[in-house]
């Protein structure tokens, strides 16, 4: 018996996988919702669906290899047909906060090069305004203390992400500073301001990048917006 949130995540992930067509290059997201999409894609591949995929993290690449989903790279192809990825928050106009799992940089690269970004999320991630969830900002380790102080001057409470006693290191060898803004009324302005700070590599703000959101509900139903 699955708990209701897992039910919702699974429903969203599996529904999004139904948008994949033969021959597509597919972006594989990261996190516990993307997990269900990848599982479903693995089952479809097992049944003969012919696709190739690019994973947004080492964890998702490992899962794809386990499920025998053929992986490709940007050396082979620079355009994906569809990208299916999770979210920490989705606003009513489909702006998204990502990066809770620390994969935001590769997630944004894959999303940017995809014809279609489908965000999958349980119903509780759908919010009127972004910002309750801390915004992940990937930074270069060199000078991170100074980068963090600059982030604070933009009005957030910055916190260096840790994993147990250690500093969390991304797949790209960088750090993450989680920035609690409270409310993000103008995500594009915040994203631009963050990108102006040397040392900031990428932010978890995905402004007007999502084409669709598939919301999963605790009763196992879904809604596409
Ligand atoms: C990882 C992400 C995830 O998609 C996001 O954190 C949502 O994760 P989950 O589906 O586990 O709630 O952006 O960097």
From TrEMBL:
The active site is at 107 (proton acceptor). It catalyses: aldehydo-D-ribose 5-phosphate = D-ribulose 5-phosphate. HAMAP family: Rib_5P_isom_A. Pathway: Carbohydrate degradation; pentose phosphate pathway; D-ribose 5-phosphate from D-ribulose 5-phosphate (non-oxidative stage): step 1/1. One of its GO terms (biological process) is D-ribose metabolic process. Its EC number is 5.3.1.6. GO terms for molecular function: ribose-5-phosphate isomerase activity. This is Ribose-5-phosphate isomerase A. The keyword Isomerase applies. Belongs to the ribose 5-phosphate isomerase family. It comes from Chitinophaga rupis. Substrate binds at residues 30-33, 85-88, 98-101, 125. Keywords: Isomerase.
């Amino acid at each position: 018996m699955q708990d209701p949130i897992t039910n919702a995540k699974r429903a969203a992930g599996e529904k999004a996988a139904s948008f994949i067509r033969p021959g597509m290059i597919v972006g594989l997201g990261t996190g516990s919702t993307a997990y269900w999409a990848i599982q479903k894609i693995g089952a479809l591949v097992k049944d003969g669906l012919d696709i190739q995929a690019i994973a947004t993290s080492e964890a998702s690449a490992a899962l794809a290899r386990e499920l025998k989903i053929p992986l490709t790279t940007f050396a082979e192809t620079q355009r994906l047909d569809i990208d299916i990825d999770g979210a920490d928050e989705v606003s009513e106009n489909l702006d998204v906060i990502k990066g809770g799992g620390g994969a935001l940089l590769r997630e944004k690269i894959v999303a940017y090069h995809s014809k279609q970004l489908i965000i999958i999320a349980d119903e509780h991630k759908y919010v009127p305004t972004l910002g309750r969830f801390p915004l992940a900002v990937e930074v270069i380790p060199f000078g991170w203390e100074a980068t963090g102080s600059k982030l604070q001057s933009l009005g957030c409470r910055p916190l260096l992400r840790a994993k147990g006693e250690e500093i969390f290191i991304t797949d790209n060898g960088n750090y993450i500073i989680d920035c609690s803004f409270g409310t993000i009324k103008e995500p594009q302005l915040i994203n631009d301001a963050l990108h102006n700070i040397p040392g900031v590599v990428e932010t978890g703000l995905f402004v007007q990048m999502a084409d669709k959101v598939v919301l999963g509900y605790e009763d196992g139903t879904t809604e596409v917006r």
